[in-house]
Specification:
Elements: H1 2-5, E1 16-23, E2 26-30, H2 36-40, E3 45-52, H3 56-66, H4 70-76, E4 84-88, E5 91-102, E6 105-116, E7 119-126, H5 132-139, H6 142-145, H7 149-162, H8 164-184, H9 189-221, H10 232-295, H11 310-331
Parallel strand pairs: 3-7
Antiparallel strand pairs: 1-2, 1-3, 4-5, 5-6, 6-7
Helix pairs in contact: 7-10, 8-9, 8-10, 9-10, 10-11
């Protein structure tokens, strides 16, 4: 029976990415939403539905099939939820933030996951990589998939966390380029703006990653949540990945903070150098200015005015004093 059903395929409808039923780790059939309840009640069967920005009408149809809590459905319809895990009877509602590079900037999205006896429903909003790879990976390992909805939940969360890494690596490349520029020269205004944007995006990414620590910690340790004890170590693995991602984000933020401070110090150093140069030249030019000012006074009786070698002596004195000041400023690094 299963062999013949595996060839069945329900027509695709807007908002539904995939809707399949699995028995003992093997995909039995692609089903319509209205068939989900019947299949989920069969022993050893798990219905796995993937939705992408579904309409309110589609969410209501899914809610009716699995008797999902109205508050959870209300949250799933909105794309601005804080990462969390909530329990409604024997069902769980998990919210996780997703991240993906979109046109050179981090795009953020959300995934809402309903998990209950015999079913898993994932609802994607915003920027997110397709979970087709998760489904394909699970189907390639029927032994693991026999663990049912708990394993599917682990696979989705693990995929979400693993997809933080390409984003972190892309930001890391940009940070390294900025750091190299800081060491060579002072940053331009556009580069300062880019640095601020990176710091802001890293802060948003950290806010998306951080709360998942509590989510996975509760899934691993809570004795109240309906998670198979044998599956809990898997969530510890996800927790370790989240910690590593958080450490990488914190390291990048520290590097950006250093780059910002180094750029400011470099700018101040250049300004100080320019100020010293201007001050040195001003001191040198003050000598001929002062002498010229003295001899520019309109007094008739000035003894030096009629001395035959007075002009040459004054010019020589000015040149000598200016030369002496120039050498001293050069010695102290002002010129």
């Amino acid at each position: 029976m299963h062999g013949s059903q595996s060839k069945e395929s329900a027509p695709q409808e807007p908002g539904v990415v995939a809707s399949s039923v699995y028995a003992h780790g093997t995909r039995v059939a692609d089903i319509a939403i209205e068939e989900a309840k019947t299949w989920s009640h069969k022993p050893g069967h798990v219905v796995w539905i993937g939705l992408l920005e579904p309409s309110a009408e589609l969410l209501e149809r899914v809610r009716a099939q699995f008797d999902l809590h109205p508050l959870a459905i209300e949250d799933a319809a909105k794309a601005h939820q804080h990462p969390k895990v909530e329990q409604y009877g024997e069902a769980l509602f998990i919210v996780a933030r997703t991240a993906q590079m979109v046109d050179g900037v981090i795009g953020f999205g959300e995934t809402h996951i309903f998990v209950g006896r015999g079913y898993v429903v994932s609802v994607r909003h915003g920027a997110s990589t397709s979970y087709a790879a998760v489904r394909k990976r699970c189907e390639a390992c029927p032994t693991s998939l026999t663990n049912g909805e708990d394993y599917i939940l682990y696979a989705i969360l693990d995929f979400i966390v693993d997809n933080y890494q390409p984003v972190i690596e892309a930001i890391h490349t940009e940070v390294e380029q900025l750091e190299d520029r800081v060491l060579r020269r002072m940053l331009h205004q556009s580069e300062f703006e880019h640095l601020y944007r990176l710091r802001r995006e890293l802060l948003k990414l950290r806010r998306a990653v951080g709360p998942l620590l509590d989510v996975c910690h509760r899934l691993e340790h809570s004795a109240v949540l309906p998670i198979d004890p044998e599956m809990k170590p898997l969530f510890r693995d996800v927790l370790d990945h989240i910690k590593r991602a958080q450490e990488d984000i914190d390291s990048l933020r520290e590097v950006l903070a250093f780059a910002f401070e180094a750029s400011l110090m470099s700018g101040q150093s250049q300004q100080n150098e320019i100020t010293r140069r201007l001050a040195a030249w001003a001191a040198i030019l003050a000598v001929p200015t002062a002498v010229a000012g003295i001899y520019g006074m309109n007094f008739e009786h000035m003894p030096e005015l009629k001395w035959e070698y007075g002009y040459y002596l004054v010019i020589g004195g000015i040149a000598s004093l200016c030369g002496f000041l120039y050498l001293r400023f050069r010695h102290y690094g002002w010129l």
